[in-house]
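Box 4.2: Ligand-aware structure prediction
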Amino acid sequence: MNIVITGANRGIGLELVRQYLARGDSIHAGVRTPERAGELAALAESSRGRLRITACDVALETSVRALAASVSEPVELLINNAGVRSRERADGVEELDLADATRTFEVNALGPLRVTGALLPLLRRSRGAKIANISSGLGSIDNTSGGAYGYRMSKAALNMASRSLAQDLRDEGIVTVVLSPGWVRTDMGGSDAPTPVTESAAGLIGVIDRLTPRDSGGFFDFRGERIPW
Ligand code: NDP
């Protein structure tokens, strides 16, 4: 399978690359700063050309277009994984850093749309292509704990964009879903997170493998359970 993954230099993105490579797939990995993608570069060296690394900041139009231009084969799967969550945990509405919320929105909500738009011609060249947008349970409107305004809003917006993509691309046979990776032990998830990155990535891969056109427009966790919008 020919796959594009964004934010592939660490965390869930890097582990997805590892596991897809191990089973023989080919990957175009988008990374914001290739000079700081040492582990990915080591994987590329031993991949016999199946892993290619391209600079891609999903917040920048020119950078996203450069990623799309670097891919010549049809794309069967796009995983919009790149994401940010502010380190500061000042989650109350009085301390809200709106500039930070805007940056988060630019990456988490608009980034996947930008990448999808640029790669659409290559997705259209595959039969039954899939788009997996990595969101979060924190993006669910079924919100019972509050806080995290910028992050939650950015992922809720991503969820809505994914629903529109699912509707708009359904007739072309492209399946679009929103996936939550769980609470995962990465730089973002922190060391208290219960889910090892290997388990989350393996779960996500299994869910993506099993997707059918009927699933398009759905919101699933890494075990394949539906999440309330
Ligand atoms: P990490 O913080 O470990 O990794 C984030 C990745 O996204 C890095 O590769 C980072 O690159 C990349 N990235 C950030 N901004 C940009 C940008 N503008 N352009 C391109 N790449 C960018 O996070 P995780 O691996 O944990 O998270 C991956 C996805 O899963 C995210 O979308 C996140 O929101 C989601 N998620 C994670 C959860 C968790 O518990 N870990 C829970 C729910 C959702 P760089 O190294 O250059 O910063």
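In the box above, the bound molecule is NDP. Strands lie at 2-6, 26-31, 51-55, 77-80, 130-134, 175-180, 219-221.
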